[in-house]
Amino acid sequence: MNDKTAPKAQQPTQPTPSQSPTQSAQPTQPTPQQPAPKTELELLREQLAAMTETAKRAMADLINYRKRAEEEKTSLAAFVNTAILLEIIMILDNFERALAAMAADEIPEDHKKGIQSIAGHLTSLLEKYGVKSFDSVGKKFDPAFHEAIAQTPGERDIVLEEIEKGYMAGDKVLRPTKVKVGNGETAAK
User: Fold this and answer.
1) What is the 3-state secondary structure (H, E, C) of the chain?
2) Local confidence band at 4 (pLDDT 50, 70, 90 cut-offs)
3) Rounded to the nearest 5°, which phi and psi values hold at 161?
4) What is the mean pLDDT of residues 147-166?
5) Among 87-91, 111-115, 153-157, the least confident range
6) CB-based burial of residue 4 (10 Å sphere; 0-12 exposed, 13-18 middle, 19+ buried)?
7) Parallel, antiparallel, or unpaired: how do β-strands 159-164 and 172-175 relate?
8) Beta pairing partners, 151
9) Alpha carbons 103 and 100: distance in angstroms, whole number
10) CB distance 132 to 171 below 8 Å
């Protein structure tokens, strides 16, 4: 073999006078402080993981939004239903007041029967939707069920008189009963 055609083995390069003995022409190996450069595949995997995480978060946000929207819709429907029921209750109150006033007046019997019929229909409508009045006279005053509008002589904290009926829908108070409550004093004779 000819010296000219044989590949030359690479000789380690000697530092040049301008290089320090620790520097050489060879590429440096990564040190613990300097991470190895990432390959294109590793970079793509990291981007995929980041995009997957973003997609998962976006999906969770969408699911939470849908739940909140459904809860708000249900809450709004319940609010509207409650408002309508309270309006019907106020109409029923007016019919009951009219019936009480008619007892003292000379009103034709067929008019009384008509108003009683309407009041009965309104009561049936409320009961159909689970709305019922509740009695309070003789019971201990409870602010969850009663609204005290006056105190009079009588047994302390006992409801003595209903001024306006209270109504419940299931176990929820739609309107508290307006009541007179005893103040613990005895009535003067």
Assistant:
1) CCCCCCCCCCCCCCCCCCCCCCCCCCCCCCCCCCCCCCCHHHHHHHHHHHHHHHHHHHHHHHHHHHHHHHHHHHHHHHHHHHHHHHHHHHHHHHHHHHHHHHCCCCCCHHHHHHHHHHHHHHHHHHHHCCEEEECCCCCECCCCCEEEEEEECCCCCEEEEEEECEEEECCEEEECEEEEEECCCCCCC
2) low
3) -155, 140
4) 94
5) 111-115
6) exposed
7) unpaired
8) 181
9) 6
10) no
- Span 111-129, pLDDT tens digits: 888 989 999 999 999 999 8
Return the structure tokens found at 87. Answer: 């309006």
Residue type, 178: K
**What residue spans define the domains of the chain?**
40-129, 132-189
Instruction: Place domain 132-189 in its CATH homologous superfamily.
Output: Head domain of nucleotide exchange factor GrpE (2.30.22.10)
Q: Which two tokens stand for residue 41?
A: 């595949």
Contacts 24+ apart (CB under 8 A), 23-29: none
* Residue 159 burial (C-beta neighbours within 10 Å; 0-12, 13-18, 19+): buried
**How confident is the model at residue 173, as a pLDDT?**
94
